[in-house]
Design a protein that fits this description.
- 31% of the residues lie in helices and 36% in strands.
- The protein has one domain: Alpha-Beta Plaits (2-Layer Sandwich).
- The chain is built from four helices and four strands, in the order βαββαααβ.
- A four-stranded antiparallel beta sheet has the order 2-3-1-4.
- By secondary structure, the chain is an alpha+beta fold.
């Protein structure tokens, strides 16, 4: 039985968020498998803190990182670069935003 979705558990700020928003192309072209592989790989990267993702027309994936160096290392990861090279297969449009999280609250 799978668990219901839940916000990522992150440490006390400051830390960083990478916000990836996208509009998909039609068809899969291996997207589902690659997306699963990328999340599994990201979880093994030093400095990775968590991820949240939703898709309902517009896709939004937020990954959380300890520092800018961890984000840069992830961007340069060889397998991640393979996925980046295929962006045109999967996305009609996308934006990447890197943000510093300075405050967090909730229940």
């Amino acid at each position: 039985m799978s668990q219901p979705p839940s916000p990522a558990v992150t440490p006390a700020p400051p830390y960083y968020a990478v916000i990836f928003t996208s509009i998909r192309n039609e068809g899969d072209q291996g997207y589902a498998d690659m997306a699963t592989r990328m999340v599994e790989l990201a979880r093994t990267q030093p400095g990775f803190l968590g991820v949240e993702s939703v898709r309902d027309g517009l896709g939004i994936t937020v990954s959380y990182w300890r520092d800018l160096e961890a984000i840069q290392a992830w961007k340069e990861n060889a397998f991640h670069r393979e996925a980046q090279a295929r962006a045109g297969d999967w996305y009609a449009r996308f934006r990447v935003r890197v943000c510093k999280v300075e405050r967090e609250y909730g229940f």
